[in-house]
Amino acid sequence: MKKLTLKLSLSLILGLSSTLTFATENGADSFALGAEGMMAGALPPPGVYLLNYYQNYHAGSFDQGPDSFHLDVNAFIPRLVWMTEQNYLGGQLGFYAAQPLVDLRLNINGMSDHNAALGDLILGSMLGWHQGNHHWIGAIETVLATGQYDTPTSAQPVVANIGKNYNTIRPIIAYTYAPANGLDISTKLSYSFNDENDDTHYKSGAYFAGDYSLGYKLNDHVKLAIEGYAFKQLKSDHLNGDDIGQKGQVLAVGPAIQYQDQNWSIEAKYLKETNIENRPEGHTGLLKFIWAF
């Protein structure tokens, strides 16, 4: 069995819809904020890997949004990764696919909805490089509008949509510095380009998102870290082709712990959001289990 040394990006599709307008459509995005942490820039040897990922997210307020807002999300995301023996531009070639399963409860100003369904399908390809203590990843990820989606109506203005009803293209870079002294400095950065939601004629502006981790290996099995994420929307949203001047941002931080054995690892973290603009404000708990076949 291969010794597992990877952290790979996942995407939680957290979609919600109402008649309100916020930065990115209803404050949602298709980047899994906080999913990556320790060893985020290191890809494993050739082989097949299964990542099982669970996230619980709760938000009790919405900056510049409704007076009463509650969102609860539970998501399970299986992801299959295939690292080939092929090399291009000096980097190892890999592919991945992920299919989120999401349970979402939404309440806005006394109106509520609940839904549990498949989210949008995620496909990606990547190259990984290694040089001593330095590791890099370059990837292209596509989020396809395959998840369940219902257009809000006057009779049902609040809809807990699992799918987003638009596609996203996302270039990604990740880096890890992991010297023998046990230090682990890792980050994953991305930039997302969204097309228009044909049903609402809303186009979420392009945004930057990044995960970060500062960790230390206590022994051959256990690492501790301070981790978090940042989100900054750089392009305003458009509605019916008009710039509505809405941009969102968020910063999060919290503790994380990882246990790693011969061919598997498990990581848990708790992250609290702050510096919110035009988005929900909450906290998230994440659990990731990775198995190398």
From TrEMBL:
Query: In the record, which residues are listed under signal peptide?
Result: 1-23
Domain of life of the organism encoding this protein: Bacteria
Pfam families assigned? Phenol_MetA_deg (PF13557)
What are the UniProt keywords, alphabetically? Signal
- Record carries keyword Signal: yes
Q: What is this protein called?
A: Transporter
Organism, scientific name: Acinetobacter entericus
